[in-house]
């Protein structure tokens, strides 16, 4: 590895062409400049300059080294410019959230990217525990979770409350709704379905005996397709409201409000050092604004 300090001294000397003025530019002594040049020659094993009185010429090795020195300067200037710019509309932002929230959020993020051609957004649907771990490790910049993590270096901002919805076919008669009628219709199961059923149905039907006792009509793990069989009258399911709102055939669904409604608090989380990045802070503000507009 070339010594960066010696290389910069050599490059400056080549630009100025004078030992004393080089020393003044670099806040060094003239013997110090000469010493850097000698050490650099020793490192590469070849002479770099040929002296002729008070002037000098570069050897072939010196010309090659000068090109490297100037290239490094250019790279460092470009790096400093990028670091100082920290443009809120340039760079990559990585976000993690639940599958249902991702269905609603992604169109909002697409609209943002259309306004910012140099902004790259990587959206990942993942379980809550994974999102928290990935944010803590710095592999995600932002996360949307249902509880605020107790981690000193993680910030957690309340985002909204999202209702857990009993989703039925639009034509289904909800008069005198019972668990037996739901069971006759059949449950559209999905990876979070059992947990949602235990949370919502157990509080609203005295005869509920656990999700494993529900009659499953179909099962699917593609979050965007879960409402599809419901829309076609094949069963019912339970989803956060964002998963219902993102479904393109929303008119084919009915959300029935049970007496004991259930809500999950959503939190926007980030590592404290990441929210200092302009693009991360701006994206977080955009998500918050979109949620507020949604109501």
TrEMBL record:
SUPFAM superfamilies: Periplasmic binding protein-like II, Winged helix' DNA-binding domain. CDD domains: PBP2_LTTR_substrate. It comes from the Bacteria. InterPro entries: LysR_HTH_N, LysR_subst-bd, WH-like_DNA-bd_sf, WH_DNA-bd_sf. GO terms for molecular function: DNA binding. Pfam families: HTH_1, LysR_substrate. Residues 2-59 form the HTH lysR-type domain. Keywords: DNA-binding, Transcription, Transcription regulation. Belongs to the LysR transcriptional regulatory family. This is DNA-binding transcriptional regulator, LysR family. It comes from Sulfitobacter litoralis. The lineage of its organism: Bacteria, Pseudomonadati, Pseudomonadota, Alphaproteobacteria, Rhodobacterales.
